[in-house]
């Protein structure tokens, strides 16, 4: 029988830098033929579209599959299994499969799916890589009070979590074979050192941790971990181990069609105001700017906004102006929409 194809699961919170890391992998794939499965929370398919734009011969548009129906951890049987089977039935099988989970997904149910009989004979999980947003970690997004959490952890293995963000973060850490502390360019050396120190105390002993900026990491370091995680689920505890289902009703998303904008700066100012007022975690989309033939990409993580023109609009392509907005449950969608479109 032929050797199993290795698969790497890339997980990490909304906007941590998973797509940037994968983009770097595609552009530096060292001759490896990659297949990508991209799962995104929100209905706009921004990550897949940006990765397809890489135009690399080792990872063409046909090698990129998007799973858009909610989080991969909840739709494993319906979406993920048929997709991976399709990839495996191809004549030109990939050398390596990369799965990007949505920023809200729990990695463990996905890893478990690699143990399904029809998959495990052909594929093995090479490694689970968790990307951490360095500044968000420093700013305490994932634990309101890290010291209290640590004290509780020492007292009791199964934590009571105060917030769904902590819960997700814990699951993503516990399942990892490698941790990437990303956005190191936005941290100073002492912040990197203190985050590394704190995080190391929370990881399984053999887990490697590296810091990066824009996900720039040598593919030889990232791939080839050989963890066979599907055979090692017991050592990766999850707060959801006993839960039959995991609805992502703590978070929600909506797509806003904002029409052509006068300028990127004009839009950014409105978004900044909306983010300062409402519980918005992530914004991204493609925008038409008046008088410009190029497509504007807008990315927001917390209060940090980035925008750039990525390419010309194609002939016959509909010039869209849509943002997907992801936030905590109960965000006031109508008020947000009004602030951005007014
Ligand atoms: N300054 C800085 N910005 C970064 C870095 N990595 C990613 N970003 C920016 O952060 C934003 C989100 O990056 P993505 O790679 O799309 O993050 P993601 O984890 O794929 O996001 P989701 O799929 O929405 O969860 C983009 O604007 C990136 O340009 C980094 O190391 N430093």
UniProtKB/TrEMBL annotation:
Per UniProt, the keywords (alphabetical) are:
Chaperone, Hydrolase, Nucleotide-binding
CDD domains reported in the protein's UniProt record: CobW-like
Its BP terms in the Gene Ontology are: cobalamin biosynthetic process
Q: Which molecular function GO terms apply here?
A: hydrolase activity; nucleotide binding
Residues forming the CobW/HypB/UreG nucleotide-binding domain are: 6-210
Q: Tell me what reaction this enzyme catalyses.
A: GTP + H2O = GDP + phosphate + H(+)
The CobW C-terminal domain covers 251-339
Of the GO CC terms on this record, one is: cytoplasm
Per the entry, what this protein does is: Zinc chaperone that directly transfers zinc cofactor to target proteins, thereby activating them. Zinc is transferred from the CXCC motif in the GTPase domain to the zinc binding site in target proteins in a process requiring GTP hydrolysis.
Q: Which family does it belong to?
A: Belongs to the SIMIBI class G3E GTPase family. ZNG1 subfamily.
Give the PANTHER family listed for this entry: COBW DOMAIN-CONTAINING PROTEIN, COBW-RELATED
Protein's name in the database: Cobalamin biosynthesis protein CobW
What is the species listed in this Swiss-Prot or TrEMBL entry? Sneathiella chungangensis
Lineage of source species = Bacteria, Pseudomonadati, Pseudomonadota, Alphaproteobacteria, Sneathiellales
């Amino acid at each position: 029988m032929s050797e199993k194809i290795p698969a790497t699961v890339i997980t990490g919170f909304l906007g941590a830098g998973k797509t940037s890391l994968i983009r770097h992998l595609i552009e530096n794939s060292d001759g490896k033929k990659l297949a990508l499965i991209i799962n995104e929370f929100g209905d706009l398919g921004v990550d897949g579209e940006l990765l397809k734009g890489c135009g690399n011969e080792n990872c063409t548009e046909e090698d990129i599959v998007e799973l858009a129906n909610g989080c991969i951890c909840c739709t494993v049987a319906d979406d993920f299994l048929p997709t991976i089977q399709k990839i495996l039935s191809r004549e030109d099988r990939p050398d390596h499969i990369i799965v990007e989970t949505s920023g809200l997904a729990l990695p463990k149910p996905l890893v478990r799916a690699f143990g399904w009989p029809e998959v495990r004979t052909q594929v093995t999980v090479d490694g689970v890589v968790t990307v951490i947003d360095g500044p968000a970690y420093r700013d305490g997004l994932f634990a309101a009070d890290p010291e209290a959490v640590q004290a509780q952890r020492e007292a009791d293995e199964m934590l009571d979590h105060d917030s769904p963000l902590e819960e997700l973060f814990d699951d993503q850490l516990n399942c990892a074979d490698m941790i990437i502390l990303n956005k190191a360019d936005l941290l100073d050396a002492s912040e990197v050192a203190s985050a590394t120190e704190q995080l190391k105390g929370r990881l399984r002993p053999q887990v490697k941790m590296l810091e990066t900026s824009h996900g720039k990491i040598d593919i030889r370091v990232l791939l080839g971990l050989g963890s066979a995680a599907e055979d090692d689920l017991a050592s990766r505890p999850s707060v959801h181990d006993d839960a039959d289902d995991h609805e992502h009703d703590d978070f929600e998303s909506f797509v806003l069609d904002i029409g052509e904008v006068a300028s990127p700066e004009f839009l950014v100012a409105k978004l900044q105001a909306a983010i300062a007022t409402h519980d918005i975690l992530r914004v991204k989309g493609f925008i038409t700017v008046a008088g410009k033939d190029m497509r504007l990409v807008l990315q927001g993580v917390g209060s940090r906004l980035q925008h750039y023109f990525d390419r010309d609009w194609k002939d016959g392509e509909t010039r869209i102006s849509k943002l997907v907005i992801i936030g905590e449950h109960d965000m006031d969608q109508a008020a947000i929409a009004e602030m951005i479109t007014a």
